[in-house]
Amino acid sequence: MQSYTIGQAARLLGVSPDTARRWADAGRIATHRDETGRRVIEGKSLAAFCVELAQSEAEEDAPYTSARNAFPGIITAIKLGDVAAQVTIQAGPHRLVSLLTREAVEELGLEVGMRATARVKSTSVHIDRT
């Protein structure tokens, strides 16, 4: 499973490393030490926190803007069907959902908690493994 440093998590959450550190210190995000002694966050935990944070911001009527092109973020959900798949990415305050083939998801090796970039072109959302 992929892990993220506090700095990497902060970039994915759209906050400063100090804010991410305070959230970890307060127990809002679970961390542990890796083999080098750095404090890291498991990908699945970070994905769940991204969803929780986005929902709380939406409840606060946080402003949303329409942005184009690349949305780097973290995969928060994958629903696989026999042929099709649905991948959800939380990119800061933006939640993006892409419908693609199951084969594409498997070929890219996509998993919840993994970094990915949603690329928006017109009405299509493309997923790049990052």
Task: Explain this structure.
- The structure is a single chain.
- This protein has 130 residues and is of the alpha+beta class.
- The chain folds into two domains: 3-59, Orthogonal Bundle (Multidrug-efflux Transporter Regulator, Chain: A, Domain 2), CATH 1.10.1660; 69-129, OB fold (Dihydrolipoamide Acetyltransferase, E2P) (Beta Barrel).
- Helices cover 32% and strands 38% of the residues.
- The protein contains four helices and eight strands; from the N terminus they run βααββαβββαββ.
- The radius of gyration is 15 Å and the shape is globular.
- The chain starts with a strand and ends with a strand.
Structural key phrases:
single chain, globular, 130 residues, OB fold (Dihydrolipoamide Acetyltransferase, E2P), three-stranded antiparallel beta sheet, five-stranded antiparallel beta sheet, Multidrug-efflux Transporter Regulator, Chain: A, Domain 2, alpha+beta
Q: Kindly give the count of domains.
A: 2
> CATH topology of the largest domain, which one?
OB fold (Dihydrolipoamide Acetyltransferase, E2P)
Q: Could you describe the largest sheet, including whether it forms a barrel?
A: 5 strands, antiparallel
* Rg over C-alpha atoms, rounded to the nearest angstrom: 15 Å
Question: Which segments are poorly predicted (pLDDT under 50) over 5 or more consecutive residues?
Answer: 62-67
Placed side by side, the strands forming the largest sheet appear as 6-5-4-7-8
Number of DSSP strand runs? 8
First-last Cα distance = 15 Å
Structural class: alpha+beta
User: Averaging pLDDT over every residue, what do you get?
Assistant: 86
| Helix content, binned percent | 25-40%
- How much strand content do the residues show? 35-45%
In N-to-C order, the SSE pattern is: EHHEEHEEEHEE
* Shape category: globular
